[in-house]
Input
Amino acid sequence: MSRYVIGIDLGGTKIAAGLIDTERPTEVIQQVRTATPAASQIIPSIAELIRPLIDAAPQPPRALGIGAPGVIDPARGVVVSAGPTMPGWAGTDIRTDLSAATGLEVHVANDVRVLGLGESRYGAGARYQRTLFLSLGTGVGGAFVFHGALAESPHFTAGELRRIIGRDFEGMAAPIEDFASGTGLAATYNRAAGRSEAEELDLRAIMARYEQDELAQRVIKRCMLNLGEAIAGLASAIDVDAIILGGGVGNLGDVVLCPFKRAFRTYSLQPLDTIDILPAQLGHDAPIIGAAALVPA
Output
C-alpha cells in the first residue's frame, strides 16, 4: 500500500494542497495553491491543482483528504449547508465528484474540524485522549477529538462553537463569535473607542498599537476572560483532557492565553480546572496535515 496521501485545504479565497508521506505525517513534501473559483469550478480546479503532486509522488498517492467550509456529512462527503461566502456550494457531493475527477479515494470533513484533528493527533494534543480544539480566527469554530478521531455527530455540527452564549465586553449576553473572533474583537474595540466606520481598525492594526493602547488591553483581556468563562461550562459538560487554542487570535500568545486560562480555571468544575490549555503547534501547514489525517491508516 502506498505511503503517500494528499491533503487539501479549501477556503473561501484560496485552495492549498500538499503531498504527505504517512510515515512523516507532519511534513509537507511539496505544496501547491491557487485562488478559489466559483463553486461550480472548485472540483475541476482541485483536480488540476493536485496533478503535479500526483506526478511528484514516489508512489501513486492512495487517497486524499480535504477540509472544506460548511456543514459536511463526512460519511457521504456532501455539503449539507454552507454560508453566504461560497454561493452554490451547499449540496455539492465532494466525495463522488472529486473521486471521479482525480481517480483517488476521497475523505472529507469541515475545515475547522480538520485543523482540530491534525493538532490533536500530531500537534499540541498528541499526548491526550480527549481534546477540545478552539479556533479563534475570522470566526469561531472548533473540534472535539476523542482517541485520535473526530467525535461522531448525527447532525454534523459537533465543534460548531460560534453560537455558545457568553458575556461580551459590556457584560451583555452574546454569541462568543461576536466578541472573541478576530472580527468580533475589532468590532468591540472600535465600538468602545467611538470610532466611525471610516476610522475603524482591524485586529492587526489594533495589536500593532496594543502595548501603548490601554483600551486595546482592556478589550482583549475582558473578552478573553469572558470566553474562558463560557468555554469552562462547555468543557465541564463534555469532559476533556486538554484545550488547544488555534487561529489568528488563538496564536497571539499570552495576551490571549493568560486571561482565557484564568477564567477557565475559575469557572470550570474541579478537577477539570487543572487541565492543560495549549497554543496550537503545527503552524501554517496545519490545514493540509489535518486533511491528510482524514485518510485511514
Summary: The radius of gyration is 20 Å. The mean pLDDT is 96. The chain is about 35% helix and 25% strand. The longest strand covers residues 14-21.
